[in-house]
Every structure is written in structure tokens, then in C-alpha cells.
TrEMBL record:
Identification of the protein by name: SCN4B protein
GO molecular function, one term: sodium channel regulator activity
Cellular-component GO terms for this entry: voltage-gated sodium channel complex
Record key words, sorted: Disulfide bond, Glycoprotein, Immunoglobulin domain, Membrane, Signal, Transmembrane, Transmembrane helix
Membrane topology field: Single-pass type I membrane protein
Chain intervals with Polar residues compositional bias: 181-191
Chief location of this protein within or outside the cell: membrane
Claim: Disulfide bond is one of the keywords in the record: yes
Entry's localization field: Membrane
GO BP term (any one): cardiac muscle cell action potential involved in contraction
Residue span of region Disordered: 178-206
Residue spans crossing the bilayer: 140-161
Amino acid sequence: LPGLHVFAIAFALEVTVGKTNTVTALNNSDVLLPCSFTTCIGFQDLVFTWYFNSTELIYHGKIKSKASEPFLVGRNPRVEFVGSTTGKENNISIVLKNVEFSDAGKYTCHVKNPKEKNAQHNATIFLTVVQKMVETDNTLTLIIVGVVGGLIGLLILFMLIKRVVLFIIKKTQDGKKECLVSSSGNDNTENGLAGSKAEQKAPPKA
């Protein structure tokens, strides 16, 4: 079925930049822009490109087959390829060196696979460049965690004390019961009541 074949080809090639598509980098630092692709039927002479803000080509590479690593066709001098395609994952990530504020924007990782009738797919990363990383103030969080932890600790301590007190009370009450039973038994014996250890008199003969 021609329609089914086209449907399978359309969903065979996938490109991803990971769990999040936003990256923050310090000014004058190097930043990793991750990207990988998957294909159900393999690839041959695959072409991948990286674009800045959809128009500026910053890296262009090709991969002959799964058995070979990518080779460079063209790149921006500040861009370095750090991926690998002979391993488990088809990694085509790049590193942008000496990031500047003007580098902030959209980076698109684009892949075209001739083996899949030139099927194409891409994924996008948004880069933000900052002067310094903002430190998260965790003081309030630490206070809340400390208070909650303290309350839980007190609750556990209270429960332990309660169990010990109840255990002591139970033992004390059990001891009193034993004393009462013992005293009652002694009284019965001394008074010669029924059920006691005193000898029973035989009934008179008719």
C-alpha cells in the first residue's frame, strides 16, 4: 500500500535535543548544544546541519554509514563537533566556544536521510547568555525542611514515649491483678470456703 509506505517513512527519522530545549550559558564560556537522531531503517550519506536563528549555517556535516564517523563539510570557527555516530546513540552535538551575548537565540539541528527518500527532521534549542549564574536562595526551603523534619522527629519520640508508658502501666496493672488473685486464694484457703484447699467434710450417713 503506497499510503502506508509513505506513513512509515515519515515517522522513521526523529531528531531530539534532550529533555529540555532551553540552555543557559555564562558569557565567555563554552556551551554544549546537544542533539541526536534515530532512524528505523538505518542511514546512508546522511546530512546534518546546525543553524543559528534559522538562517545562519554554523555547522555542516555528513555521515556515510553507521560504521563511519561524521566528517566536516563546513563550520563556524567557534563551533566544534563533539558527537559520535558509531556508538549506541547517533550523537551530533556541538560545542559553541567563547559564548557572547549576541549568540543568544534559536539553534536548530537539522537532519536529512537519503535512505529514507530524503526524509528530514529537526529539533530546536533556545540559548540564553548571562553575565553570571543566579544562585538560588535555598534558605526558606532549608527552614521548611528543618521544621518538618523536627516535627516528624518529635512525633516519633512522642509515640515511643507513649508506648513505653503504656507498657509500664500494663505491667503494673498485671502485677496488681496477680496480687489480688493470690490474696483471694489465700483467704479462701484460710476460711475453708468451697473451692479452697481446705478438706471437705463428708456428708452424714442416713
